[in-house]
Structures are given as structure tokens and as C-alpha cells.
Amino acid sequence: MEKTVLSEHINRVALAKCGAVLLFAALGATAHAGMFDDDEARKQIAAERKRIDDVKAQQQAVDARLNKMEEAFKSQALLDLFSQIEALKLEMNKLRGQIEVLNNNVENTSKRQRDMYLDLDTRMRRFEQQGSGAPAAEAPAGAAAAAAATAPPAAGAAAAPPAGSPPVAVANVDAGAETRAYEAAQGQRRVGNYQGAIVAFQNFIKQYPKSNLAPRAQYWIGDSYFNLRDFKLAIGSQQTLLKAYPDSPTVPDAMLNIASSQIEMGESAVGRKTLEELVAKYPVSEAAEKAKRRITGLNASGPAATAAPAGKP
Computed from CA positions of residues 29, 34, 40, 46, in that sequence, does the dihedral angle turn out positive or negative? Predict the structure, then answer.
């Protein structure tokens, strides 16, 4: 009986020990599994962080490329816009030259029409005077004709044209030659041959000093000297315009060109004074608007600022 009890007790102890061993093994396995799961989690977290870093790097690279593309696009757009503006300026200068020629043609045509009207009126008066001066008694045709042929002309009266003769032609001033000479000078200027343009405009003024285009020709002489960067001669040419044609609409543009030349020579204070005088004398002119903008630019940039080339009127 005691052996049986002892045996059962030993078995219980053995079972208890086995249970403890199994429980410990299970706990160890669980702890090991937990440690294994933590390592895997850390590895996954590290991998995710690396992926996030890679995505951020890619995003930054894309942003940098986009910024470069935007800057390049803006630069190209500005260049295109500048080219278009320059082309428009050239076209406007060309159109203005054509308008000047057309205005001159219109004035010359009006002058010719007035001359023709005066000539026609004079001839009509001559016929009326001849009709009122005929004798009351009708003379034979042959005698009247002979008397008319032999009689001296009355003092101050022009002799009537013989019967059957063609009408007197009105003196035709060759306005086309004047226009062609001015256009030829403008053509030299447009292609950049400023020295040739100066000579051509000077010859035009000598040949047509009373032309309506003479003040414009004098302005373009000064402007051509400006483009050749001979600012002293540019100023002298524009001052000639101011003295010779003080009432010309070109005077404000000449003053603007003088101010630009002065500023280019480093005389900013003198140039500013000329601009202010231009604005005061011709406030509603296009040149005055440009002068205001340049005065603002001088105020913003300081005394060392230089002016852009004079705008073409």
C-alpha cells in the first residue's frame, strides 16, 4: 500500500515536472516567436521608410525638372515676345514712312487741283472778257478775224489762244520724284545703312527744301546719327530741326532724341531736364508719354542710368 502511494506520488511529481518543462518550452517558443516577429516588423518598417525616401527623392527630382522646364518655357516665351515686339516696331516704322509719303502725295494732289482750278478760272475770264469787248455791229467774219490778228493785245491782258489750238497745259510738278527720293532715303535707313540714309536725306532737303517731308527728313538724319552712336552729331541735327521747323509736329520727337543722346553721353541731368521740358511744352504728344516713362526709369535707376535708343516717331 505504501509502495503504491509512493509510486503515485512519484508519478505526480514527474508529471508536474514534465508539465513545467512543457510550459517553459511553450513560453520560450512564444518569446522566440515574439522576438522573431519584432525583427520582421523592424525590417518591414525599414523597407517602407526606404521606399518612402525613394519616392520623396523621385518627387524632388520631378519637381526640379518641372522647375527647369518652366524656366526654359518662360525664357523662350520672353524671347518670342521680344522678337514679336521688335518685328512690330519695324512694321510700325515702315507704315509710318508710308503714311508720310501718302500724306505728302495728298497735299501735292490738292495743290495740283488748286492750280488746275485757277488756270481754268483764268481761261474762263479771258473768254468772258473777249465776249464783252466785241463791237455792237456785226462785222464781216474775215475782217473781224484780220482785225483780231493784227490788233495788239490790251495792256495787262493775255492774248487768247488761236482757234483750234490745244488747251494750255497746267505746269505739272513732278511730285513722284520727291516721293521716290524720300522713299529711297527711308529704304537705306530701314536696311541699317545709316550713313547712306544720312546722305540721302541731306540731298532730299537740298533738293526739296519746301517739302512737307523736309522736317521728317531732318529728324531721320539725327536718328541715323544716334544709331551710329555719334551722339554729338545727333544732337546737332535735331537742334537744326528745332530752329528750321519750330512749328513742325516732329519737334517733340526731336527733343526726345536729343535727351536720349545726352543720357547716352553720360549727361543724365541734362537729359532729364530736356525730357521735363518736352513734357511741359508738348504734354499730349506721344513723345511726352515716352519721356515720362524715361524720367521714371531715371528716378528708379539713379544718375548712372542710361536711356534706351530714341523711339521712332
Answer: negative
Handedness of CA 218, 223, 227, 228 (dihedral sign): positive
Instruction: Determine contact, residues 194/228, Cβ cutoff 8 Å.
Output: yes
Look at residues 185, 27, 20 and name the one whose alpha carbon lies nearest to residue 101. 185
Q: Give the span between the Cα atoms of 284 and 280, in whole angstroms.
A: 10
The cell 478760272 sits on which residue? Answer: 121
Contact yes or no for 125/206 (Cβ under 8 A) = no
Cβ atoms 279, 292 nearer than 8 A: yes
CA 224 – CA 194 distance, rounded (Å) = 5
CA distance 308 to 313: 14
**Would you say the pTM of this structure is higher than 0.85?**
no
Please give the CATH number for the structural domain made up of 177-313: 1.25.40.10
Q: Of the ranges 89-98, 150-159, 259-268, 294-303, which one carries the lowest mean pLDDT score?
A: 150-159
